[in-house]
Design goal:
The structure holds two protein chains of two kinds.
Chain A (H helix, E strand, L loop, with lengths): L3 E9 L4 E10 L4 E5 L6 H9 L6 E6 L2 E2 L10 E4 L11 H11 L4 H14 L15 H14 L4 E5 L7 H18 L2 E6 L2 H7 L2 E6 L2 E6 L1 H6 L4 H6 L4 E8 L2 E4 L2 E4 L9 E6 L5 E4 L7 E10 L4 E7 L4 E6 L10 E5 L6 E5 L2
Parallel strand pairs in A: 3-8, 3-9, 6-7, 7-8
Antiparallel strand pairs in A: 1-2, 1-4, 4-5, 9-10, 11-12, 11-14, 12-13, 14-20, 15-19, 16-17, 16-19, 17-18
Chain B lengths: L4 H4 L1 H27 L2 E3 L5 E5 L2 H8 L1 H34 L5 H13 L2 H12 L4 H8 L13 H25 L3 H9 L4 H12 L1 H17 L2 H6 L7 H11 L3 H25 L7
Antiparallel strand pairs in B: 1-2
Helix pairs in contact in B: 3-14, 4-8, 4-11, 5-8, 8-11, 9-10, 11-14, 13-14
The chains are: A alpha+beta, B mainly alpha.
Protein name (chain B): ABC-type spermidine/putrescine transport system, permease component I
Pfam family, one (chain B): BPD_transp_1
Membrane topology (chain B): Multi-pass membrane protein
Chain lengths: 347, 285
């Protein structure tokens, strides 16, 4: 098991930094996701950890040893590529044997390890197949097995589920996560899919424009986003504005106490997740903001409403479909004050 | 699967123009050559009455002709091999190298094809001749005493053939390498292979379809080359193609010339088939 420490890592292709002085400490056996939109530097960061890109500045340490000048083949990494990158001219067995042959392991050890890893990815009996004879999900599992069979220091995954269909993608999330826990390998996972990052990771690194916007557990990222960008990138969010007075922000939903150090009179942005509120009939007598239903979208387990507050502001609300409201209905929006999260002062 | 009858003829219709063209202008004349090769030699006519195996008998009984086939094949092998060795790095560079000089690279690779075959061959005689630029320069520098025999031998023919057929080797290999996902090489590196090992175990075997196509093209073209061997080989070294034309045009022996032409085709085809068998790729669908 390996601890990975990235210190002030920078990559500049000559048009300004693609990765700008980022630092991450990854604990032994931790599953970390690099999450962000395309061009945010997450893939470049992964390539620098793998050794495919040289770092312009900074250090990458595996268990304290700087590997910046170590070539890819000497870094002892296992990597899974977006398109799997299975060798098409080799059978599954030969694909799996490749890394072991590079390590000059004896033949019978190679055989035992391949049998073990095939069992682990539930592909026993497929060793003589060529990659083109496998389904997308099976190819994905071979790619995973090929990266793991060499027992690398760290496992790097570059958007490995992007080419799978939705159902398989969800299965593979669980599969990869379980496997990673069992093997206990330090893992860096690159994705632009926030649901993937949230469900699989111990911690998520959110990146924008080559910088880290926030590092935290999935619930940190979702419930306590560092700024507006993070809040909007991870899931849906309503931005509620209000003036601070006496450590309280007054909003359409009532007064919300804030703990931060905000001056009186400042206008504050508060994040309110669509599922954090309750929708009640207008005459229920509860506290809340009256609103009109503009539209609703039913998706089986949930209903998404677009509501217009008396102030004219539009909020999105997500509820269970137990009580349905029709378009044009007057409703009461109840938002508990502890579900608001301050994002900062309106610039 | 049941195919609706209307659709079954679709593909046939699409290939019909090409098939008709090849049928009328290649297959029929070829059949004519086959028939011709069994005709009796004529006296003042292209062929005489009746049929005979004598043309083939003449071929096999005179070692001169067998030797010529062997020479021609040998020139073909060497030209192919040299094209492969010289062409592969160029193909790799064009496929994987920096894009800055790619257009220039293409132009340079294709340039031999842009010059007419006769002009190009005469160009080589100016360079390779006993009194040619190369020999005069080397003599002038005092590096050699007399002219090196660069022309009127197999060496000169091979040099000139390599020059003109190199693009036919480079282009298929380049396109094969371009078709290889670069992440395969990255995957090999991540598994512990050095750049050299990754090339040997991944890139090279995956570019085999291009090597195969390029080798067959160059080999077949070398066997059938006429203008270059006849201009550079002169009267001393003759390839089969030259001898066939001699037989047909100079001595007017149409039946024997046809037999010679067919022997060249058949031996060439045998080697292409053997080569194809040796380089069969099990991993391809």
């Amino acid at each position: 098991m390996t601890e990975v420490s990235i210190e002030k890592l920078t990559k500049d292709y000559g048009q300004g930094p693609a990765v700008n002085s980022i630092s991450i400490r990854i604990a032994e056996g931790e599953f970390i996701s690099l999450l962000g939109p395309s061009g945010c530097g997450k893939t470049t960061t992964l390539k620098m950890i793998a050794g495919f890109e040289d770092a312009t500045e900074g250090a990458i340490r595996f268990d304290g040893r700087d590997v910046v000048h170590v070539p890819v083949e000497k870094r002892d990494i296992g990597m899974v590529f977006q398109n799997y990158a299975l060798f098409p001219h080799m059978t599954v067995e030969k694909n799996l044997a490749f890394g072991l042959e590079m390590r000059k392991l004896p033949k019978d050890e190679i055989r035992t390890r391949i049998a073990k890893v095939l069992d682990m990815v539930q592909l026993t009996g497929y060793s003589e197949r060529y990659p083109r004879q496998l389904s997308g999900g099976q190819q994905q599992r071979v790619a995973l097995a090929r990266a793991l069979v060499i027992e690398p220091k760290i496992l790097l995954l570059d958007e490995p589920l992007a080419n799978l269909d939705a159902k398989l993608r969800e299965e593979m999330r669980v599969f990869i996560r379980d496997l990673q826990r069992r093997v206990g390998i330090t893992t860096v996972y690159v994705t632009h899919d926030q649901a993937e990052a949230m469900t699989m990771s111990d911690r998520v690194v959110v990146m924008f424009g080559g910088r880290i916007a926030q590092i935290g557990t999935p619930s940190d990222i979702y419930e306590r986003p560092a700024n507006l960008e993070v809040a909007e990138f991870v899931g849906q969010v309503n931005i509620i504005r209000g003036k601070v007075g006496n450590r309280v922000v007054s909003t359409a939903f009532g007064d919300v106490p804030v703990s931060g150090d905000f001056a009186d009179g400042a206008e504050l942005m508060l994040a309110l997740r669509p599922e954090a509120v309750e929708l009640l009939p207008i005459n229920s007598g509860a506290t809340g903001a009256p609103a009109k239903v503009l539209s609703s979208y039913y998706s089986g387990s949930l209903v998404d409403y677009r509501l217009e507050l008396a102030t004219g502001a539009v909020v999105n609300v997500q509820t269970f479909p137990r009580t349905r409201f029709a378009d044009g209905d007057q409703v009461l929006v109840h938002a508990p004050s502890d579900r608001f999260w301050p994002l900062g002062i309106v610039a | 699967m049941i195919v609706p009858p209307r659709k079954r003829f679709g593909p046939l219709l699409l290939i019909a123009p090409a098939a008709i063209l090849l049928g009328v202008f290649l297959v029929l004349p070829y059949l004519n050559i086959v028939v011709m090769s069994f005709r009796m030699p004529g006296q003042g006519t292209p062929y005489g009455p009746g049929f005979t195996l004598g043309n083939y008998g003449k071929f096999f009984s005179d070692f001169f002709y067998v030797q010529q086939v062997i020479n021609t094949l040998w020139i073909g092998f060497l030209t192919t091999f040299i094209c492969l060795v010289l062409g592969y790095p160029v193909a790799w560079q064009l496929a994987r190298g920096a894009s800055t000089f790619r257009a220039l690279g293409y132009a340079l690779v294709l340039s031999p094809l842009l010059v007419g075959i006769v002009i190009r061959s005469y160009g080589w005689t100016i360079l390779l001749g006993n009194n040619g630029i190369i020999n005069r320069t080397l003599t002038g520098w005092g590096l050699i005493d007399g002219p090196l025999p660069l022309m009127y031998n197999a060496l000169g023919i091979i040099i000139a053939l390599v020059h003109v057929f190199l693009p036919f080797m480079i282009l298929p290999i380049m396109s094969a390498i371009q078709g290889i996902d670069p992440s395969l090489e990255a995957a090999a590196r991540s598994l512990g292979a050095s750049k050299v090992t990754s090339f040997r175990r991944i890139t090279l075997p995956l570019s085999l379809p291009g090597i195969q196509a390029g080798c067959i093209l160059v080999f077949v073209l070398s066997l059938s080359a006429y203008v270059t061997p006849s201009l550079i080989g002169g009267l001393r070294v003759k390839t089969m193609a030259v001898t066939v034309v001699d037989a047909l045009i100079d001595t007017f022996q149409w039946p024997f010339g046809s037999a010679l032409a067919l022997m060249l085709s058949v031996t060439g085809a045998i080697f292409v088939v053997i080569f194809g068998r040796l380089t069969v790729m099990k991993w391809k669908a």
